[in-house]
Sequence to fold (647 residues):
Amino acid sequence: MGDSGIENLLQESRTFPPPAAFASKAVGTADLYTEADEDFVAYWTRQAKERITWFKEPKQGLDDSNAPFFTWFQDGKLNISYNCLDRHLADGGDKVAYHWVGEPGDTRTITYRELSDEVNRFANGLLSLGIEKGDRVAIYMGMVPELTIAMLACARIGAPHSVIFGGFSAESIVDRVNDQEAKLLITCDGAWRRGTVVPLKENCDAAMESTPSVEHCIVFDRTGAKVSMSDGRDVWWHDLVAQQSTECEPESMNAEDLLFILYTSGTTAKPKGIMHTTGGYLTGAATTHALVFDLKPDSDVYWCAADIGWVTGHTYIVYGPLTNHTTSVMYEGTPDYPDKDRLWSIIEQYGVTIFYTAPTAIRAFMKWGVEYPQQHDLSSLRLLGTVGEPINPAAWMWYQENIGPKDCPIVDTWWQTETGGIMISPLPGVTTTKPGSATRPLPGIFAQVVDVEGDPVPLGGGGFLTITKPWPSMLRSIYGDDKRYISTYWERYPGAYFAGDGAKTDEDGDFWILGRVDDVMNISGHRISTMEVESALVSHPTVAEAAVVGATDDLTGQAIAAFVTLRGTATESDELLEELRDHVAMKIGAIAKPKTIIFTPDLPKTRSGKIMRRLLRDISDNRTLGDVTTLANAEVVAAIAEQSGGK
Ligand code: WT7
Fold:
């Protein structure tokens, strides 16, 4: 490769064709690619009409006359809560929507009928507080069914919601609430986390001292914690809904009306309020959920183990699954409480068939050891998924061998808050998978790896990932900042959406995501993806997790500094350190051999589980640490800094 892209170092040759029995019954079929390649707007319009019940069917598909402010199905009218609930009640609505598992061990089974009744009641409660179509509602709750109920109630009356992850601080609430001038804040008294109560209402109280737009705060009583209620402002959830009717007319929304705002923190600057609208978003959510997860609504028990505070939860716990009449599992707590087998015990108990989680979780499972999944019968599983970061081939193999049944298909799904739904992923009944590759853009999605000039990189090369055609669930803008929307996503490669990720293709045309462009290192003029070096390290049997960064180096510009977490059984030693450096050289070449390796019991991560390489760069370069407010485990940073020689 020239000096215009990113090196392609890691070679992975294992392939897994879909098992014949799976392929013969698969929901997603190969002809969808042909159909979408011929006319992508017609393809998406067909999905929109078949998967969604419209109050008024759209005649328009894509409108690209005001690019990059694209619209989809602009003249259509619909209500999302109607699609998620009302139309599933014709048979009485007895089907289970959620098997909910509380962290302390309490459980709830919620049918479509019950969910609908609660949503209608709460929607009437919102109306009684004066919330109108178009008013913004911020939601800061734990993983309780009421979070889903609140979102659907907002959608029912046409009030855009903005969910703020329950792990964020009061300060984060202030920024997000003020940016959108939310009129209402919905919260819980507290949330369970590893047996203790996170004081959500207290955080809201602190935040509401600086959020002038908020008129009311609704509080759901989850933990029984003592909270202070401010007269006239704060209302208990149970009081609000007590007298409300279970019927609330769904608002007829335009396809392009705002459904939600979700803030992504990006790297440093002010969080971006990513805007998603109604018709296109739901089309994308329902279509990708059905095709990628091979959803059989009559027999599957589906579990997306993300938090609803992230887009993964919006699209694949709430909107996609409910639109598709799915029975889901929803879990309140952490995977290691009360013990490290919690997820496996839930899978066994409910007979989960489809399981979707993140590479960071999978690497934690590897670190904890196979004895935990081995304690449980996981034979109900038939499909596994991953999202959030590049998955190291070794973690992919571990997931397939230790969690799935033999040859279980794995869907490695690449997408972003901005894309609204899955973009690059196998169709599990069609695509031959490769550990570490998200494989191909889904039908109706078009991606291209380009060099710095924007020219296509030939197959086999690395560069920058772009999406070349609009898609229905794309973000519509950044709330209140159209300029930033254009400059962040559309200016670098005119006519294409710039995702901010590096990627390479292989000779078959499959895509391999190399991580955020900001994380790419420059070693003696070679652009090397952190992810490839990390994957080489993780392929060593003693390594559970690794992060590498480019540390400033007089000789080579940058030198590779690696931070390594060992598996439960391995011990640190100087010999192992040398062995790991040689292992990387052997796997992907001498150029990628780490100059330094530091052992650490944990790596700094964002609250969504992404490794924060930026902080490791600060440590390696002996700089003051940058913003640490979105860090989940602040204590590890100090420990690593100390280890790296007081730097
Ligand atoms: C970034 C988006 C999409 C929901 C969760 C994250 C990384 C996501 C993959 C994957 C490699 C991935 C990318 C992307 N990413 N999925 N399968 N393989 N990288 O949403 O917080 O908006 O993050 O996550 O870097 O740009 P998000």
The pocket of WT7 is lined by residues 264, 310-312, 387-390, 412-417, 438, 499-501, 513, 515-516, 608 (CB under 6 Å).
